[in-house]
Write the structure tokens for this entry.
Amino acid sequence: MSEAAAVRPIEDYALIGSTHSAALVHRDGTIAWLCLPRFDSDALFASLLGTEENGQWSLSASDPDATSSRRYRPDTMILETVIATAHGKARILDFMPRPAPDGTAELVRIVEGIEGRVELSTAIRLRFNYGLTIPWVQRKEGAVVAVAGPDAVRLSSSVDLDSLDFATGADFHVEAEERISFTLEWYPSHTEPALPRDPYALLRRTQTEWSGWMQECTIEGPHRDIARRSLITLKAMTYQPSGGIVAAPTTSLPEMPGGVRNWDYRFCWLRDAVLTIYALGASGFQNEASDWRWWLMRAVAGSADRLQIMYGLTGEQRLTETELDHLAGYENSRPVRIGNAAHAQIQLDVYGSVLGAFDGARRGGLPDMDVVWPLECAIANNLLSAWKEKDSGLWEVRGAPQHFVHSKVMCWFAFDRMVASAEDFGLEGAVDDWRAARDEIHAQVCEQGFDAASNSFVQYYGADRVDAALLRIAQLGFLPADDPRVLGTIARIERELLKDGVVYRYLTGDEGDGLPGTEGAFLACSFWLCEAYALTGRLAEANRFFDHLVGFGNDLGLFAEEYDPIACRQLGNFPQAFSHFALVNAVHTMAGVAGSATDHLANRDDAPPP
């Protein structure tokens, strides 16, 4: 593995995206990850998980002493990097427009001279099939065309491009008010693409589309800016044709460098369902909330008897996990995986997330929810027996199944929302059965999932350990926030899982999760603790902790899945939707806009007594 690839922290990357696919751009101007035409397509730049020989696109000043700064253009996903040398300044604009009507997917890089003269160089190494395949390259009508199997790429530029050492590049300069463009287009290799679109028109259009979308945002208050940036990031991770939102646009970025906890997150997780509906709807994005609702309905349709924990971008069920032996892995973290075997696990919390999301959509005023009710009933009726099973829990442990307390609470939440929907909206269903199951689960969790000696709920029945997912007990309304058992659980999580200013989801070790090694602290859980503080009357502490956590993001407001407080670096797939949803929901809770996520969704006064 090359030294350059080994020393690039995850937080040094920026995301650009088209709401169909995405790329990661390092602060030095290297695009190290790009999948086209979809988030889950084979990468054609994969140096993020290997070396430059696995594909990348560099664009930087020739002067090694050049300095740079970067930002997103306000309310957009257009990355703007300013390069300064002793002789001038230049600006690089990186963005991905919406695909063309014929499906052609583009990535555009525009270099603008600001002052003086800046010498630059660029090198494009196209490697299809996750960095394995060197394409057949030819020149055609002034462009460079690369073909490998079903994929083709056309590279157009306003400077001449040369071929050298299985790469395409150029040395060039830009002067004040001069502009130079590069456009990379993906299209099916068996077709003839239309003429390239004007990159400057695409820039104007992309700017207008993003800015117009953000006009719908209703978030205000002291944390407005970071929440808005998180929402833009989430929009960029949305697969627009279906409304599904990927957990992350990357695969196999490690939870600990050099370890084996490396997973493909380019799919849509049901665990995010209820948090997604709330974060989008409460922030003013009703259309996106509606699109997610329909994706959710289509994905689970026909499988109410066995919900998967995740699905593909359009609801695909088969997500076969494969290891890519030709890639060295990020900082030698192997194996590199595509697909995710966890899709076959039993994870009971998804029932509560799905039925809670549909209830939230109904209460949020989304239209046509009567169409969804029969599916909700089928899911709830199947859960009447399924809730009694063991499962793999929210965190998809690869150890032995257990009666995870969070999973049981989410089953309780599923029935609670079904009862509330039926009663509040006059819907027909097996309400008595749902109510009975809800009350039985509540009693069982309080008896078997609570440890009186520590005054705390535990990770699973019989365990002597906690799980940060227990922070959601009050958020879900399972018990009031001021209940001594809730306060005791928060206190134990603070003692055992809050370390060096960030929350771990659980402790790995002797009773582990079926995997060797350790992992970083989980950022979503840390934002859940902010909510727990706010809900239990510790609002000032919640705000201080939130401001502390925001410092773990990178300079662009992007958060990975985890954080290593010792090495002071982000870990895991990047950026992570779960982290950004948790951030947005914490902002809503602390602002008092709607209480916690589930208080907003539930709006109830019918919770069973403790």
Summary: The mean pLDDT is 93. The first strand starts at residue 13 and ends at 17. The domain at 216-602 is CATH 1.50.10.10 (Glycosyltransferase).
